Amino acid sequence: MSEKRMVHLIIERQDRNDTSPYTVEFKIPYRPGMNVIAALMEIQRNPVDASGKPVAPVAWECNCLEEVCGACMMVINGKPRQACTALIDQLEQPIRLKPARTFPVVRDLVVDRSRMFQALKKVKAWVPIDGTHNLGPGPRMPEKDRQWAYELSKCFTCGCCVEACPNVNERTNFIGPFAISQVRLFNTHPTGAMHADERLEALMGEGGIHECGNSQNCVQVCPKGIPLTTSIAAMNRATTVYAIKSWLNR
Fold first, then answer.
1. Exposed e or buried b for every residue in 63-90, given b needs 16+ CB within 10 A?
2. What is the CATH number that goes with domain 6-111?
3. How far apart are CA 138 and CA 223, in angstroms?
4. What would the DSSP string read from start to end of 181-216?
5. Phi, psi of 48 (to 5 degrees)
6. pTM confidence score
7. CATH 1.10.1060.10-classified regions of the chain
8. What secondary structure does DSSP assign to 127-173, as a single string?
9. Where in the chain is the domain with CATH 3.10.20.30?
10. Cβ distance 101 to 161 under 8 Å?
11. Neighbours of 152 (CB within 10 A)
12. End-to-end CA distance of the chain
């Protein structure tokens, strides 16, 4: 009788944000069609390590299971990605899971992505309205602009691009590629363009676009294939033009 197929995982764990990380190995029964979330659920159901010793269940996050919410982002075999779409059959074993170290670790694979939402606040990544009364239909975007703007709107703040970017670390305040792309998106919107200068000012401030080193890691790991480097190039031009115009208008 053939030996039952097992899935071998090596998970980097951390009990609290102020403790040192350590690794624990697990071996769980294989099932066809498993993804990393299913493997973590199996460990949660029966939390014993590869030697059979009982351990605390691994902490992790998930929500939509459709690569929409971004909650299950972690580093899988050295690459930041969504655990819900990481299929066991397509991963080299042992499968190594780590938290995204660009962010503060809460516990095990759970991280605090607050810096991303603070970056969106900084660049005012929204279309403001005046009050709550009905303003009627807004202006329509030309179809040629709508098509590429839709690609930028696919960003779901998962953090893959931030984790992969070497310029986002504890020594810098760089807002990250996703925020720059969102400035491009909202500055292109007919209503959002009313506040374009404020967003460009934010990009030119501390942690702004000038801290991008153009490593292009971001575009390689984006799960939605968003043209982040194209957005960065476009915003580099926009901020340069804005800076020159502001100097000439002094």
1. eebebebbbbbbbbbeebbbbbebebee
2. 3.10.20.30
3. 31
4. HHHHHHHHSTTGGGGHHHHHHHHTSTTSGGG-----
5. -130, 145
6. 0.91
7. 114-248
8. ---SSSS---PPPPPPHHHHHHHHHHTT-----HHHHH-TT-STT--
9. 6-111
10. no
11. 21
12. 83
Strand order in the sheet with 22-29: 22-29, 6-13, 95-98, 73-76, 79-82
pLDDT in tens, the chain (250 residues): 346 899 999 999 999 999 999 999 999 999 999 999 999 999 999 999 999 999 999 999 999 999 999 999 999 999 999 999 999 999 999 999 999 999 999 999 999 999 999 999 999 999 877 777 787 787 888 898 899 999 999 999 999 999 999 999 888 899 999 999 999 999 999 889 999 999 999 999 999 999 999 999 999 999 999 999 999 999 999 999 999 999 998 8
**Beta bridge partner(s), residue 35:** 87
Distance CA 115, CA 121 (A): 10
**Over the range 170-190, which residues count as b (16 or more CB within 10 Å of their CB) and which as e?**
eeeebbbbbbbbbbbbbbbbe
Residue with tokens 């404020």: 198
Q: Which CATH number is 114-248 given?
A: 1.10.1060.10
Provide the sign of the torsion angle of the four alpha carbons 105, 73, 117, 174, taken in this order. positive
